[in-house]
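[stage:ingest] chain + small molecule (WQD)
[stage:ingest] validated
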Amino acid sequence: MKKVLVTGGLGFIGSHTAVELLSRGYEVVLADNLANTNAAVLDGIAAIAGKRPTWANVDLADQVACRALLEGHSDLAGIIHFAAYKAVGESVQKPLAYYRNNFGSLLNLLDFTAAHPACRLIFSSSCTVYGQADTLPIREDAPVKPAESPYGNTKQVGEEILRDGARAHGFRAIALRYFNPIGAHPSARIGELPLGVPQNLVPFITQSAAGLRGPLKVFGNDYPTRDGTCIRDYIHVVDVALAHIYALERLLSGKGSDPVEVFNLGTGTGSTVLEVIAAFERATGGKLQWEWAPRRPGDVVAAYANTEKAAAGLGWRAERTLDQCMADAWRWQRTLPAK
Ligand code: WQD
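[stage:predict] done
[stage:export] tokens:
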């Protein structure tokens, strides 16, 4: 049974990926220090998968602790590295904490893959690296633009660290550039758990509809788009999780030319904010309260993925619709405490 370490495995995408790994017979070790989640997610994973993965409560940016964890699992076939701070706005307020945590954890893991090159690594990257792309849909060879936040910079530089490390030490890796992961597992046992006021659109929508927040504020109505609101590529978190299985299998099969390959994870379809609201209302039969608000600094007008490279290289395409995303997100929200 191949063993895989999932860092950030109690987080949003990590937990959904752990479920898919377990259902395919992988042995899964989760490393998560609960910086942005809670331990109850482990029960949700176990309830879906029918088995409870090992959980190590480890701060991966702590070199001694990370080394001790990895020495206990020197037979790892792969590492899927989700653990990172990921709030764009917070990263502007606390850049040093973001660099220390996101680079420290990555470097500690790469010390291991440099010593054990047979252990393959998948790195969570982001469409943020493209900034406002000149051409849509966005291809992986689109120019990486100067990062608009320290968070985005940790993804851009993280990919460079991967490339330099792989070239020098002979390990193999894949960087997956997520567009906008949303939704929840259809079982409603796991889903998105934003701590505090949600910065992202869909968790704010579901919390507002659940009466936990006031009306949704739509940031900007005068963008050069079909209805004046920003366009994003919203992809179901289960589709994102499945892409990690395909990427791992590509790495384990030894396919692929470059030591580090990059793939977009998106649906290839862009949706405006108003279209997301309409999808939520269709999926739930409810009416969402919302109001216009000023543009949010840093927002790009439009971003959606060219999906051809992922389809050809991973043999994967997103399958779930925006309406399914909203129905699953709402079902999950209704399981959460009303307070
Ligand atoms: C989507 C659209 C907002 C909230 C961010 C990160 C990205 C990735 C995904 C980690 C935008 C609008 C939002 C609200 C709104 N995270 N909006 N009212 O900004 O595309 O991407 O999350 O990798 O790196 O940048 O996602 O959900 O915040 O915003 O109108 O209350 O919804 O203006 O147009 P974003 P988002």
